[in-house]
Specification:
By secondary structure, this protein is mostly beta strands. 0% of the residues lie in helices and 59% in strands. It is built from no helices and eleven strands. Strands 2, 4, 5, 6, 9, 10 and 11 form a seven-stranded mixed sheet that branches. Strand 9 and strand 10 form a beta hairpin.
């Protein structure tokens, strides 16, 4: 099993910043892609940013220039630095690590975290 723990959400004024963290732990051989998604009430879960095992990044158009994703592979941790936050950034942010279990079959896995709430006041 793999445990995924997100932190760093909160209430911030428009124009402010937040730094989200997500740590994966458990029976992990290797984590490849790590991603952040957001889900607002009544809406689908959408990709915000992702980072590969080699460090390649991909961002949603709505956050380019405002958001930076980074990872510490030794700690199986991914970060999301969000700046110039806007009211439309309000959502629950979920972390999604993809990887390989540490077992004889090297089975792949993907997990979702419970999410951390980001609220931006106007």
């Amino acid at each position: 099993q793999v445990q995924v723990t997100e932190s760093g959400g909160g209430l911030v004024e428009a124009g402010g910043s937040l730094r989200l963290s997500c740590a994966a732990s458990g029976n992990i051989m290797r984590i490849s892609n790590m991603a952040w998604y957001k889900q607002a009430p009544g809406e689908e879960r959408d990709l915000v940013a992702e980072i590969s095992g080699g460090g390649s990044t991909n961002y949603a158009d709505t956050v380019k220039g405002r958001v930076t994703i980074a990872r510490d592979s030794a700690k199986n941790t991914v970060y999301l630095e969000m700046n110039t936050l806007e009211p439309q950034d309000k959502a629950v942010y979920h972390c999604k690590p993809d990887g390989i279990y540490r077992d004889a079959d090297y089975r792949p896995f993907e997990y979702w975290g419970q999410g951390t709430q980001v609220t931006v006041s106007s």
